[in-house]
């Protein structure tokens, strides 16, 4: 989230700077309108586009959590499967900031809804028609403003024919150009992105560009430019305007007068400016959208047993080879840290201390299962539910288990267990039993080099999905 905020602020800032330096002074008003709206929306979407494409999480079928009747051969003691209430994490600065953000966003949303209902109330009044405009007379201020095809105007203003003719033509442009839709989009974005300063700059730029468009079209319709300029100047003293409407009273008078009397540049110059703006924004867009914004998922892989502790048959060698294959896939998205890279004995205490020193996001302890009934096979996942990480450990277990089912024909269950590592690490943890070494089919898979690579790939795929959920 922090990275998303950073990249949206940077990309919006760069796009706004491009507009200010390249396009603002040009009388390419319609292009400027769509450039501002387009860059605004694309800059907000760009940082998550790569994540949506590459890290899309497939649907996961429900896995039964009922206790298994099959016993597990293990050197650790299963302490029970009683479900306990998972403790909620203590409040932190991130929770406080989240609630502050939510409170302010709700305030903006309430303001927006209040303004919408205020306009709806005005539209209920009796109204006349001037062309496609529905004229609603009000007693609030003297300036006119429009909301879609509704024109709100003080009755006294209609008595001044010079003003009313210019104003009606001006507001008719707002109506025909659907400028109200732009305003509504901006207001909705402000409810969610009020903290981004460039949203506010964009809002001012877009509303100002609306006025440039309306001014230009009004003069082109035959209204005298000198008289119209005087009306703009006089209207600066009439500041009230109905919220969420496009208005004749926009007060940046100097910019409007300057733009109204400015000569249009040559076609070549306008083309070069537009091309430069598009190329510059394309660079900004690529910078934002092709950047992976998520922090790497730090995963400690614990290849079970080792050294004097062989596990079930040749379990220690099998899980070590799979662990090594998985470590080769470590990259900027998934950082793999292995506890052992050779046949060495590690005590459970040493393993837990190692894991906690790494500030890991997840621990996967790799094992192979065994049972006296050689027909029993399949993968199993264990998690510990009596700490703060129980919910995440369970969810991650589902993903890790699901992606192994295409390799092992038998479907097993997720189980709760009090294994030492699961209980004592300071992060979500899953103990994964990769098949039964006592089952001929599972053994053939586990001892085959290509299948070990396939198991590692499926584990890495699961880690990508887990990372997408963070």
Topology, pairings included?
Layout: H1 2-23, H2 29-54, H3 93-123, E1 128-130, E2 133-138, E3 145-147, E4 150-154, H4 161-176, H5 179-193, H6 197-220, H7 225-235, E5 246-247, H8 253-261, H9 267-289, E6 297-303, H10 315-327, E7 334-338, H11 348-357, E8 362-369, E9 380-383, H12 390-402, E10 414-416, H13 420-424, E11 429-436, H14 440-446, H15 449-469
Parallel strand pairs: 2-4, 6-7, 6-8, 8-11, 9-10
Antiparallel strand pairs: 1-2, 3-4, 3-5, 9-11
Helix pairs in contact: 1-2, 1-6, 1-9, 2-6, 2-9, 3-5, 4-6, 5-6, 7-8, 10-15
In short:
The chain has 470 residues and is of the alpha/beta class. The protein starts with a helix and ends with a helix. 52% of the residues lie in helices and 11% in strands.
Overall description:
Residues 352-464 form the MurNAc-LAA domain. It catalyses: Hydrolyzes the link between N-acetylmuramoyl residues and L-amino acid residues in certain cell-wall glycopeptides. Keywords: Hydrolase, Membrane, Transmembrane, Transmembrane helix. The radius of gyration is 33 Å and the shape is elongated. A hairpin with a 2-residue loop joins strand 1 and strand 2. The termini are close together. It folds into two domains: 2-57 and 92-289, no CATH class; 297-469, Zn-dependent exopeptidases (Aminopeptidase). Mean pLDDT is 83; it is low at 51-89. It is α/β, with parallel strands linked by helices and 470 residues long. It contains 15 helices and eleven strands. A six-stranded mixed sheet has the order 7-6-8-11-9-10. 52% of the residues lie in helices and 11% in strands. It has helices spanning 2-23, 29-54, 93-123, 161-176, 179-193, 197-220, 225-235, 253-261, 267-289, 315-327, 348-357, 390-402, 420-424, 440-446, 449-469; strands at residues 128-130, 133-138, 145-147, 150-154, 246-247, 297-303, 334-338, 362-369, 380-383, 414-416, 429-436. Helix 2 (29-54) packs antiparallel against helix 6.
